[in-house]
Amino acid sequence: MKGSRSVSGADVWQGGWFESPIWVTKKDSRPGHPWLPLWVSLDGHTRSGSIQMERGSDEDLLSGLEEMIVELGRKPNRIEVRDPTLARLLSDRLGTEIDVVPTERLEGVERFLDLFAKEASSSDIPGALEVRGVTVEAMRRFAEAARAFYQAAPWRHLTNRDLIEIRAGAPPG
Description:
With 173 residues, the protein is of the alpha/beta class. Helix content is 34%, strand content 15%. It has helices at 58-72, 84-94, 107-121, 136-152, and strands at residues 12-19, 35-41, 46-48, 78-81, 99-102. The N and C termini lie far apart (56 Å). Mean pLDDT is 84; it is low at 1-8.
């Protein structure tokens, strides 16, 4: 598979099922990354369906593509997806009218998910030293712990799908 690239003069759309970059906890459920059916045109239009805790069907995804075609009043010249099985399904469904290409990197989707994560996490969070009770000394100890964590490099053993829960008694006085 080759990386995504702009096709001169072509209307390129990218899509598929993608794990949301944010953690979500549903009632009576463990936290996880929900799935998002998503279509992005490289000229900036997007169409996403409902976030789901389990990956939905490709038929749901195709419905979202059809809705985006109706909303924009046009079809793309090219569709890029990561999943080769989805690419075959789309090619079978769309025929030769639209070029469907399995592509390893979907830059338009990546930009959308990055923006989605930033918007989901943005809020009026005060600076660390603006919080009552936080001192420079406490921040220094926190920075030392962060440095030790960085040097331990646990990400060599974990992925962004791993959930870590730390259970401890009361902290020392």
